[in-house]
Design brief:
The chain is mainly alpha-helical. The protein has a domain of about 220 residues: Transmembrane di-heme cytochromes, Chain C (Fumarate Reductase Cytochrome B subunit, Up-down Bundle). The protein is about 65% helix and about 5% strand. The chain is built from eleven helices and five strands. The strands form two sheets. It has a three-stranded antiparallel sheet with strand order 4-3-5. Helix 3 runs parallel beside helix 8 and helix 10 packs across helix 11. The longest helix is centred in the middle third of the chain and has 53 residues. The radius of gyration is 33 Å and the shape is elongated. About 0% of the residues have low confidence.
Length: about 325
C-alpha cells in the first residue's frame, strides 16, 4: 500500500514536470504573439499600398494607406510648419529690425496742404473687400497648420473645436469674394503694373526705402508692382488649388489633391509673409501711404516724392502709362 502511494506521487510529479516543460515555450511565445505576422512596412514595400475589398460603389475607399499619403502627412505636420514659421516669423523679425533702424519713411518736404485723388471709391472698395477676405482666410488657414500645436493647449478642446468649425466655414465661403476681388484687381490695374525701365532704376536706387533717395515712379512703383503680381499669381494659385480641395474628385484623385494641398499651403504662407510687408509699408512704414486707400487722396508732396512721374501725368503731361488725369483738390483743412 505504501509502495502504491509512492508510485502515485511519482506519477503526479512526472506529469507536473512535463506540463512545466511544455508550457515554457508557449509562455515565451506570448511576449509577441504577432511577431511572425506581416508588417505594415512589408505590405507597402510589396504592394506599394495597403488595399482591401469594399462592397460600396466607391472602390477608392478600399485603399487604407498609400506611400504618397505618408509623405504628405509628414510634409503637412512637419515640413510645412517649418516653412510657414520661417517665412512669417522671419518677415516679422526683418520688419522690426528695419523699423528700429530706419523708422517711418517721412515726407522730407512736409505736407503741402493740397491733395490729389489717387484711388477711386470703386478701387478702394475692391481693395478693402479683398484685403478683409484675405485676412480672415489667412487666420483661418494658419489655424489648420498651427492651431493644434499652438492654440489648442491654450483654449482647450471644446473651444478649439468650436473655433475651428467656424474658421472652416469662413475659409470656404469667403474664398468666393476673395477670388472675385483678385480678378477685379487684375483687370483694374494691369495697365499700370507692366514692368518698364523706370522700375529697374527704382530698384537700383533702393526705392526710397533704403536711404533717403526718391527715385521717380509712375502710378505704381516696382515694389507695388511686385505686390500686385504676388496678389494676382499667388491669389490665383491658392484659389484654384483651394477649389480643387473644396470639391474633391471632380478634378483629380487623391494623389492630385495631395499635391494641390501642398501647393495651396506653401503659396499661402509665402503670400501671408509678403502681405505682412505690404501692410507694414501701408501703415507705420511710410508717412501718408495709408491715406491713398483710406480717403483715396494723397498729399501733393507725397505724390511728388514717391510717384513724381505719375504726378506729371495727372498734371496733363504724357507718359507710357496713360491714366485719366485726376483733379487736384483744394487745400486740406
Amino acid at each position: 500500500m505504501a509502495s502504491f502511494g509512492k508510485l502515485v506521487r511519482l506519477a503526479f510529479g512526472a506529469c507536473a514536470l512535463l506540463l512545466v516543460i511544455m508550457a515554457a515555450p508557449a509562455s515565451t511565445q506570448q511576449v509577441n504573439p504577432t511577431a511572425s505576422s506581416v508588417k505594415e512596412q512589408q505590405l507597402l514595400q510589396e504592394l506599394n499600398r495597403i488595399q482591401g475589398r469594399v462592397s460600396i460603389p466607391d472602390q477608392r475607399s478600399g485603399v487604407l494607406e498609400q506611400p504618397q499619403g505618408r509623405e504628405w502627412r509628414e510634409f503637412r505636420n512637419v515640413t510645412l510648419r517649418w516653412i510657414g514659421g520661417v517665412a512669417i516669423i522671419g518677415m516679422l523679425a526683418l520688419l522690426v529690425i528695419f523699423y528700429l533702424t530706419r523708422g517711418m519713411v517721412r515726407l522730407e518736404s512736409g505736407r503741402s496742404g493740397r491733395t490729389i485723388v489717387r484711388f477711386t471709391l470703386f478701387e478702394r472698395f475692391v481693395h478693402w473687400m479683398t484685403a478683409t477676405c484675405f485676412i480672415i482666410l489667412a487666420i483661418s488657414g494658419l489655424n489648420i497648420t498651427f492651431g493644434r500645436p499652438l492654440l489648442l493647449p491654450l483654449i482647450g478642446f471644446e473651444a478649439f473645436s468650436e473655433w475651428s468649425q467656424w474658421a472652416k466655414y469662413a475659409h470656404n465661403y469667403l474664398s468666393f469674394p476673395f477670388t472675385v476681388g483678385v480678378v477685379l484687381i487684375f483687370l483694374m490695374w494691369i495697365a499700370g503694373n507692366l514692368p518698364n525701365k523706370v522700375d529697374v532704376a527704382w530698384i537700383k536706387r533702393g526705392g526710397g526705402i533704403v536711404g533717403h533717395d526718391h527715385p521717380p515712379a509712375y502710378r505704381f512703383n516696382a515694389g507695388q508692382k511686385m505686390i500686385y503680381w504676388i496678389v494676382v499669381i499667388g491669389g490665383g494659385l491658392v484659389a484654384a488649388t483651394g477649389y480643387e480641395l473644396m470639391f474633391p474628385f471632380y478634378v483629380s484623385g487623391i494623389e492630385g489633391m495631395q499635391m494641390a494641398q501642398i501647393i495651396h499651403s506653401v503659396v499661402a504662407v509665402l503670400f501671408v509673409a509678403a502681405m505682412i510687408a505690404h501692410i507694414y509699408i501701408g501703415t507705420i512704414g511710410m508717412e501718408g501711404a495709408f491715406e491713398a486707400m483710406g480717403s483715396g487722396e494723397v498729399d501733393l508732396n507725397w505724390a511728388r516724392e514717391h510717384h513724381s512721374l505719375w504726378l506729371d501725368e495727372q498734371s496733363g503731361r504724357t507718359g507710357p502709362n496713360d491714366q485719366k488725369p485726376q483733379p487736384v483738390t483744394a487745400a486740406a483743412e
